[in-house]
Amino acid sequence: MDYALRDLLMFTPEVYLRLFIRVNETLGPWLAVVIAGLAVMGGLLVHPATAARRLAFMVMAAGWGLSAALFMARFYAPINWPVGWLAWAFAGQALLLVMTVLRTPPARAGGLPLTVALAVLSVMSLTTALAAGEWAALALPGATPDMTVLTTILMLALLPRGWRWGLLIVPLLWCLFSLLTHWALGLWRPLGVPAAGLVLGLAIGCWPRRRE
Amino acid sequence: MLSSMTRRRFLAGLAAAGLASRLPPALASAGDSPITRSIPSSGEVLPVIGMGTWRTFNVGTDPGLLDQRARVLEVFFERGGRVVDSSPMYGSSEAVMGRLLARLGRREALFAASKVWTRDEDETRESVQRSADLWGVGRFDLMQVHNLLGWEGHLETLKAMKAAGELRHVGVTTSHGRRHDELERIMAREPLDFVQLTYNLLDRDAEARLLPLARERGIAVIANRPFQGGRLFERCQPHPLPGWAEDAGVSSWAEFFLKFIVSHPALTCAIPATTRVEHMQENMGALHGRLPDEAQRRRMADYVASL
């Protein structure tokens, strides 16, 4: 007899999926602001002006802050104590994102890759809702950690390769932590988000920037 | 000591003591008296089915889930349960228990058991006080050293707290069958009131040395992971209960697993955990009726091994 991964988790899948519902309920009308922010961010990333693309990264950094303060620190950390520490890492990542884009401008996103990325992210946002059987459990980038991390990893492809690895440490650590958590909970569809984050993070860490 | 009181004698005794009107309705209709064991060191009598909170009561501040767990806890008390076990390790479980106990107003029935879970052996008192504040109890009925973590320092302080009347009983815990050799050494030399260990139909290592030693030393035993973290249900539930189960006093798989455990003469209490009212009702079914004898226990173990 020995510890299995699921023996180390102190909460049930039901409680975990309720976190998404509670975050969405708490945001209430502000959810519209998060969704609008995501839509605007897409437009900013294809904008020819460097300042616009920098602004898109800053909006994403705000999403890291929101995920850390609301989802992680307020709701998730009380049932899973390591998340309290990881929330601080998220706050640090938000600052790092801002400082990085102020020093190096992101490249302009291509229309087709952006469309594909938005389609993939939209599907990924549904995985928690499908697992919970409720639309209210939708996981939005900028409000929930897995989707925030995955979205950011895709955006890092727009930065020079030399800058990416420093910005990939927290996302990759989170993806590993989240992957193991979902595995232990037996939540296979939502597990796809951190799994995709890990694979894409490693790929994007090595991928050259457009026109680099 | 196993209580063999019949329902009629139990009710007659209650009536004589003027307590019949206080009998919880669910217990009154349960069909017989609850099966109890006494704590060797204090003589206090406990029902053999308690409640664990690992995973199940770690729901944070979610109002919907708090309501649901309140119903589970209410059924536990209504069906005659008393022992509730938790730990600071279980996330928000202690805080949740405190909120629900205050809401239900059932602290008088409670036998509150928690743990000290910190490497810092100088932090015992602070840990106990934090847990007491979260539970909303003046003093714990049982305080244990979680998984033997820093047990030497913690146990010394817990013993001093017990001597000063700040705790009623002290103990140590292990789980998953780990560190049994060390646990055996501690049981042999320390004046423990309780040990908590993993014992179920699939994990029976404790039968060899620990359970006989507990009887010899007069230590009460709490069995954790009675369903092996749900794996016993996964293994057995696709199959029907054997035809002879009724003779062993068993009418569900939950009773099958729990009555196997609490029919061991060294056991004081098993602490299954659940999130669902209907499962709590099934678990508490094991608090009533017959217990399997030794031959039936062997048959139960063989049957589960064959599945």
TrEMBL record, chain A:
KW Membrane (keyword) present:
yes
**TM regions (residue ranges):** 27-46, 55-77, 83-102, 114-132, 138-158, 165-185, 191-208
Alphabetically sorted, this entry's keywords are: Membrane, Transmembrane, Transmembrane helix
Q: Does the keyword Transmembrane helix apply?
A: yes
Its domain of life reads: Bacteria
Report what the protein is called. MFS transporter permease
Per the UniProt entry, what species is this protein from, by scientific name? Kushneria sinocarnis
Automatic annotation (TrEMBL), chain B:
Question: Does this UniProt record's set of keywords contain Signal?
Answer: yes
Q: Does the keyword Signal apply?
A: yes
Which residue numbers delimit the NADP-dependent oxidoreductase domain? 49-294
Q: What residue ranges carry the coiled-coil annotation?
A: none
For this protein, the record's InterPro entries field holds: AKR2_Oxidoreductase (IPR053135), NAD(P)_OxRdtase_dom_sf (IPR036812), NADP_OxRdtase_dom (IPR023210), TAT_signal (IPR006311)
Instruction: Give the residue range of the signal peptide.
Output: 1-28
CDD domains xref list: AKR_PA4992-like (cd19095)
PROSITE patterns according to UniProt: TAT
Keyword list (alphabetical) reads: Signal
Q: What is this protein called?
A: Diketogulonate reductase-like aldo/keto reductase
**Source organism of this protein record:** Kushneria sinocarnis
What is the taxonomic lineage of the source species? Answer: Bacteria, Pseudomonadati, Pseudomonadota, Gammaproteobacteria, Oceanospirillales
